[in-house]
Amino acid sequence: MRPYRHLLAALLLAGTLLAAPAHAQASAAARPVRITVDTTQTAGKLPPIWRFFGADEPNYATMKDGKKLIAELGKLKRGDIYFRAHNLLNTGDGTAAFKWGSTDIYNETPDGKPIYNWTNVDRIIDTYRAAGIHPYLQIGFMPEALSSAPAGTPYRHDWRPGLDYKRIMSGWAYPPKDYDKWRELIFQWTRHNVERYGRAEVERWYFEIWNEANGFYWKASPDEFYKMHDYAVDGTRRALPTARVGGPDAAGAGGAFMDGFLKHVTAGRNHATGQIGTPTDFLAFHAKGQPTFADGHVRMGLATQLKEVDKGFTKTLSIPALADKPVVIGESDPEGCAACPGPENAYRNGTMYSSYTAASFARIWELAARRKVNLDGALTWAFEFEDQPWFAGYRQLSSNGVDLPVLNVFRMFARLGAERLAATSDAQLPLDTVMRDGVRGAADVGTIATRTADGKVAVLVWHYHDDDVPGASAAVTLALRGVKGGAAARATLWRVDGDHANAFTAWKRMGSPIAPDDAQYVQLEQASVMQPQPLALTGAAGGTATATLEVPRQGVALVVIDAE
Prior knowledge:
The protein is of the alpha/beta class.
């Protein structure tokens, strides 16, 4: 992709200017913040909704840096991480490209007999399973031999960063020309997966049909999608009656398309079986933010994403028969296209992405509790882009095998417990304010506190602002009521900010080398790692233990208290 280096260079320049490290903000007086945690008072459950990830390009998972990152994702919550990928049914030779992938899973003989080829798709799923990851299995897109695309329509797209996004719509986006063959393909694939991975394993998977059929990814009517969906679900359930099936992973809350889908799967005539309704075990939609570039800096669109989440929750609750179903936000991100360049996307390498992640997940948890939605997951549509320039500015979790700061926030999430504790911050903005205005005035210094399964208290603290400009640090006083052992308890601090667990900062300090050598690579890997630090606790009246810490703007911190 060398012709696009000028675009990447622009992103790097923006990232270099905008991602100011913590020490650059030291001139401003720190803002005092008080966070209080009552470890004796529970505040409900905190489901691990963050444990889902995904990418357009399925073949990257089997490549050197992709395998390395898959292994790291698997360590986050062993046995409970899910991965979703587009293009698993595409025809092709398995060569990865931007927003493209293929497995050559289906072809036909000259007289129209099916040829099934599981080799490439097995390699991808084997890679997941070797890391303990389960598929959130997207059934899509249409194999070339089954595509009903008009004669002369190219099958594989030629999109690359900088070109019109609509160019990705090509022959793979059409309905099947033979629905029985389509159903049989899905049946044979599901049966093969059960034979290869075991029934109990495949029962854990999510089976979801297509992607954003209300957007760019479907070249037919909504009713034609419902038909394609019905046949795929029927093929899946015929091979595995207990398969977990759902969808439709609509773009945004889904609008009229989602209304029609929900009506169809509950009260419509099933195109494949003739019965009323379609089996539906979970519902899925997407929610994205909308960053902009103005006045020389990135301004994030947290409010935009949260409003879309709330619209999606409202849709999933609109049909009483489905209102209790698990919900997955199948893509939940600061913006829409992981591979697309642009100055508004210069947040990706540094701490804007990591602090946004902490602040947004906190509000999604809060929204789900408010709406009483059975939220099972919020899937981060970010992975890696193999053999691209260092810190090229794509929305990803690592660059050339070195973790970005945002991945460490997911490691922090993994240290949180399932039992939420009562916690308040006098600088945390109310949910309604963030949904209405974003974080455009005072910064948002917020917290989530939990108790872990082994009895520790884990307190997450973020310092977020929509505008990527320098600002004062937060001087946090953390008051912990009811900690066993009080000031004698052991506390550990992890940080992600401009100076901690940040390979991007380290790379810039090296002079932004185009090709780091062996020693520099090791230094970058080391710089990406969160290093635990002891945090002193002091006693106070009323049995409250107190700690102080400074959290830079766009920083995230995790304090874990292990009572003696």
